[in-house]
Amino acid sequence: GSNDRYGPRGNAMAVNAVVRLAQQGEADALFTLGRLFESGNCFIGNPDLVSAQALYREAAARGSREAKAHVRP
């Protein structure tokens, strides 16, 4: 039903869509996926800052200004 998009299944569908776009090299999706890894919100377990930084670097290389602001030296 229409409530699916606000429950756990909707969240999984949104994450899957972001992952697909990130795999295609879409800069905003790479940045969003980095944020999800950094927060740990959409994955079981703790935040993964190493993966988040790798995604930010990739997104920045593809032109995401937001990602550039999150890249750490």
Number of strands: 0
Provide the succession of SSEs.
Answer: HHHH
Beta-strand residue fraction: under 5%
Give the low-confidence spans. Answer: none
Shape: flat
Give the helix level as a range of percent: 55-70%
In DSSP terms, counting alpha (H) and pi (I) runs of 4 or more, how many helices? 4
- Could you give a short account of the major beta sheet? none
Helical/strand content category: mainly alpha
Head-to-tail CA distance between termini: 45 Å
Mean pLDDT score: 86
> What's the gyration radius in Å?
13 Å
Describe the protein.
This protein is mainly alpha-helical and 73 residues long. 66% of the residues lie in helices and 0% in strands. It contains 4 helices and no strands. It has helices at residues 8-23, 27-39, 49-61, 65-70. Helix 2 packs antiparallel against helix 3. The longest helix is centred in the N-terminal third of the chain and has 16 residues, at 8-23. The model has no long low-confidence stretch (mean pLDDT 86).
